[in-house]
Every structure is written in C-alpha cells, then in structure tokens.
Amino acid sequence: MLESVIELLFAVALLTGAVGSGQWLLRRIGFITANMAESISFAAAAGCGMLILAVTGLGLMRLLYVQTVWLLTGCGVVAGSFFVARSRWLCIRRGYTMPRIGAHPVYLTVSVLLLLTLSFALVRALAPPHGATDPLAYQLALPRIYLANGYLSFERSINGALYPSNAGMLFLVGLALRNGVLSQVINWSIGVLTCLAILGFCRRHFTWRSGVWGAAIFATMPVVMVLSGLAYVDLVLCFFQFMAFYALANWLAGDGRSALLAAAVATGLAMGTKHQGISTVVLGGGIVIIGDLLQRRGLRAAVTDLGQYAGIAVLLAAPWYARAWVVAGNPLWPLANGFFGGLEYAQIPTVMGGVRTSEESTGMWAYVVGTVAWLRHYWHSWSPWHWTFAPPGWQKSVGPFFLALLPGLFLVRRDRKVLALSAGCIVFFLMLLRGLHMNPRYGLVLFAYLAVLCGVAAERLMDSRVRMVRSACAVILLTAITLQATWAFAMARPLFSVVFGAQSREQFLISHEGAYRAMRFINSRVPQSATVLLQGVVKGFYCDRRYIWDHSHPGVITYADYETPEELLARLRELGITHILRMINIPPSRLDFFPQYFQDPFHEEFRQRYLRLLYRDESYAVFSVGDGE
Q1: In what order do the strands lie in the sheet with 620-625?
Q2: What pLDDT does residue 342 have?
C-alpha cells in the first residue's frame, strides 16, 4: 500500500511541475485560455513536451543516468510548483468558473461514473507491469536499456529500436525516479489529461454538458480502458494530437498566432511519439491552408503560416528521425527501406496497406481505383461496425456509443462547428485506414473527437422537448456507461491484493508474469558481463543482463543460414552470447517467428553439444553456452 502511495505522490509532483512549466511557456508566447480545463491540459502538454525534449537531449549527449534525470525533474518540479502557486490567483482574476454539475443529476451521475472508471484504471496502473507484450518488449524495455547504458543506444535485435520515442522518454523518467509502476501511472495521467482536454474543448467550442458526455464516452471505450492501465504509447500520441487540433481550432476561432505556435509544438511532439503522428502535420497543414483561404488572408499568408507551423513541428521531431537516419541510413527505419536503402531488416513491418489495381489504371485514377478496391477487400477489418460488435481483441474495440449516437448529429446538422469537425474526422478516418493501419489504437485521436461529436448529439437528445425521449436517452446512456464502469472494476479487482499491500509485488510477478522466475535466476546467478539470447521470448523488461532477441523480424540471427551447430555457435560467439533463455513450448501463434526448439533436430543437436542446463521450470529453461568439451 505504501509503495502505491509513493508512486501516486511522484506522479502528482511530476504533473504539477509539468503544468507549472507549461504555463510559464504558454505565457511567454501569449497563449490565452478560456477555461480551467483548457488551461491545465495545454499547460500539461507544453510541460511534458519540455521534459521530453530535455530527457532526449540527455540521451543524445550520453548523459542519461538516474542522477541526471533526478536533477532535471527535481528542478522542473520545484520551478513548476512555484509557477502553479503564482498562477492560481491569475486564473481567478481571469474569471474562470466551474460548471454547476451538481445542479444536474444526470450529469453528476455521469461525472461520478467517469471518476470511478478512471479510478479502476488507476488501480491497474499501480500493479507491477505484467501480461501485455508491447510494454515489456519495447515501450518499457527500451527506456530501461537506455537508462542502463546512459544514452539512446541502438538495440538492433529489438523491434522498434529506432522508432520515435517521446512516450518512451516519459516512461524513462518513471523508471529513473521509481519503477515501471510510476511509468504506468504517468501514462494513466495522460489519459486523464485527454479526458480533461475533451471537457475543455467542448466548453470552449460547444457546451460543458457535451464535454461531460464526451469525456465519459472516451474514457469508457474498451481500448482506452485497456491502454490506460498499461504503458503503451498510444494514449500519449492521442493526447498530443488532440492538443494540436485543439489549438488549430482555437486559431481558426481567432486566437491569433500564439494558438498556431501551440499547435505546431503539439504536432511536433506527436510526430516524435510515433510514426503515425506524421499524419498530424499532414491534416494540420491542410487545416492551416484552408483556414487562411477561407478567412481571405491570401495565398501568401497561407504559405507563411504553413511554413511556420510545419517547420516548428518538424524541428521538434527531428532528433528521432535524424537518429534513425544516422544509425541506419533511413529516418523511418525499418519502414520505407526500399526507398531510403537503410540498414537491412529481415521482415519489414506492414504499416501501409493496399491491393493492386489493374495495369490500365494510372495516375490519380489508379489511386482512386486502388482505394475503392482496398476498402472492399478489407471491409470486415476496418468497418466501425466490426470494431463495435466483432473486434479481434479489446485493443480493437471502440464500444457502443459511436454507432448509437453519431446518427444523432442529424439533429444539429446546421451547426457549422459540427459540420467542420465531422469533415475533419472523415478525412482523418480515411487517412487512418488507407495510409496507416486498420487498428483503432493507432488513430485514437479520431475517437476522441468522435466522442466530442457523440457528446454534442447526447446533449441534443437530452434537451429534447419530448419527455419520453429525454428519459429514454438518460436511462440508456447511463446504463451503458455503468456497464462499462463495471467492466473496468472487473479488470481491476484481481489486482486489489497487490495494489493495497495484501500481496508483495515479487509474489505477484512470480504468479502473473511467465518468464519472471527465470529472469530472476539470471539476475542473481549469471555474471554481470553475460549476454543472454532470448529464444521464443520478447518480454525482456525484467532481465537485468544485456540480451538479444532471436525474433525473425530483425533477422539478427536467422537459423536457416546455418547448416551445422558449429556455424550457429560461431554466430553466437560473434554476438558475445554466453547464455540462453528459452521458452520450452512455443505456442502455435508464434511459430511464424520462432522454431519449436526442443522438437527441432538442428536445435536439439546444438543443445546436446553446446548447452548446459542451469535452470528450468514448467515453461522456461536457462542454459549456458559452452565449447562442447
């Protein structure tokens, strides 16, 4: 219990420092906010961005140590807290007022359900990192390696080793100050800030009531409930993208150049979080041009604003893409290796989808025909109906509210803001599906803004003159949100014992994380200088020794290239591998990436001649690599 309280206190201190530092920066550029939720969310985005850039700088300068991260964040927290204390009175003088939610029983109930859902997600975040693959394989594992090495090292065998990693820098701060639990709480805080930003956006451009609905709908999406308790990058990407488009909306509403600067900063942070963040500058650049032309500022002003917006965004994201270019010869490595000719990669990840068109189709018509064919071919994978009723896993489930409420926008079809936001969502939806990936998780900002539109539709239904419509709407929506909150509780309940201290974190990991016992053996019994080959294992977060994957995608070790055990041994010696951690029985779903080692004659011959068993449990074995004598 005490450990959980300490992590919460660390998270509050970091968030306070980020908000205070961000407020200072926003004042320097003259950025004006209209409500408290807007002020906090923009300040937090700016403050987190400053922290990310500072930590990235430490990594590039080879100064990335626990001590330097402590010094950096300590100074930031002290300075930020000072600015927060001063700005408290300024906020009051600006005339910020809180909406009277308590006077509206339905909205009070929705707010309580929202807080309960977020609280259950916090319980999951306070449990030790376990279960999910991506955090323990990349998103927490790589920052831990960077911190151990003291710089942003290139771990070629690990997928995503050169991807943009702004979220990873935030997680690295959690690891340096405390542990992986704090990193998860930081990610949960980003989810809370996104809900707050939705509320602020709606209060600014619509009403606070639509904001309450929008925040509740977003927070109770199954994909969001799953991600908010883990250390995935997607919520961080969503937050920065949301703030970028939020600032552009304020700019279109007449907030001036400071709003455009804020949008550029948020866009750059999104581009530096994940490759999918590049879509932000593409859509944002189109918004800048169209906005200038519609407001009759002229083509010259549009080009100038676009150059300033895109230039700042690219500059902020440049360190990650420059790092990939210098190390691997490709700023998007390993994506687009065919174009850039970067460092060889065995199997390029599939990000951009498509089906071939007929040879007679050329130019723009070929793209149109290809897009139509693609939509038909992948209909069952990308349709919102599929994401709602038949998702292949909770990370692709968006919940029931969008199909239920978006048709209600017909009631507000004359609202120009609704039409503009709907058009933007449609464009981004097509960009997401045609150019990025058929997974709602990779375009989560789309659903954040769709949640805003659902909130507008829900408020319109609640304001209906027909009492039966109002009552039915309230009952159905409250029931649905209650069920979602109940599911959040069901996911959190098994973790109460470890979060509230009835079970130690060590015992929890032994019973919940498969390879933890084997890695604990390695950490205590294997020399510090050892290099461990992970066979059939990618979740290396809990391994304290240097390790290398044998995953087929990076192709650092391709077993088919070796005809004799001696050739394989020579390759292991070349890589400095001294020990092997092996999964005993590879699941059928992973046989495309790993061989079934104990049933493969080649690997069995190699084991019998060169491996000595050090440890074994029911699922994993640890060997030392010998010379065969």
Answers
A1: 546-549, 531-535, 579-583, 620-625, 611-616
A2: 84
Pull the structure tokens for residue 38. Answer: 């807007």
pLDDT of residue 360: 46
> 181, 126 in Cβ contact below 8 A?
yes
Phi, psi of 341 (to 5 degrees): 65, 45
The single-letter DSSP state of residue 95 is T
CA 419 to chain centre: 28
* Cα gap 265→49, rounded to integer Å: 8
Bridge partners of 547?
A: 532
Q: Residue 546, SS3?
A: strand
- 376-404 tens-digit pLDDT: 766 666 778 888 888 878 888 889 999 99
SS (H, E, C) 211-273: HHHHHHHHHCCHHHHHHCCCCCCHHHHHHHHHHHHHHHHHHHHHHCHHHHHHHHHHHHHHHCC
For the full predicted model, state whether its pTM sits above 0.90. yes
Cβ atoms of 166 and 272 within 8 Å: the answer is: yes
Distances (CA, A) of 59 to 14, 272, 406, 564: 20, 15, 45, 41
Cα separation, 166 vs 171, in Å, equals 9
Amino acid 333 reads W
The secondary structure of 453-483, three-state, reads HHHHHHHHHHCCCCHHHHHHHHHHHHHHHHH
**Tokens in use for 268?**
């750059």
Three-state SS at 611 = strand
Predicted pLDDT at 354 = 40
- Cβ(592)–Cβ(536) below 8 Å: no
Closest by CA position to 184, among listed 125, 253, 124, 104: 125
Tokens of 399: 């919940």
Q: What is the pLDDT of residues 429-440, one digit of tens each?
A: 888 776 656 678
| DSSP labels, 52-85 | HHHHHHHHHTT---HHHHHHHHHHHHHHHHHHHH
Nearest-angstrom CA–CA distance, 506 and 519: 12
- Residue among 152, 137, 155 at smallest CA distance from 575: 155
Q: Identify whether the C-beta of residue 18 lies closer than 8 Å to the C-beta of residue 83.
A: no
For residues 167 and 449, give the distance between their C-alpha atoms in angstroms, rounded to a whole number: 21
Are 223 and 394 spatial neighbours (Cβ–Cβ below 8 Å)? yes
pLDDT of residue 439: 78
Nearest to 34 by CA among 180, 206, 185: 206
Say how far apart CA 346 and CA 342 lie, in whole Å: 12
pLDDT at residue 93, rounded to an integer: 42
**pLDDT less than 50: residues of the chain:** 89-93, 352-362
Taking the C-alpha atoms of residue 13 and residue 96, their distance in angstroms, rounded to an integer, is: 24
Answer for the pair 165, 320: CB distance below 8 angstroms, yes or no.
yes
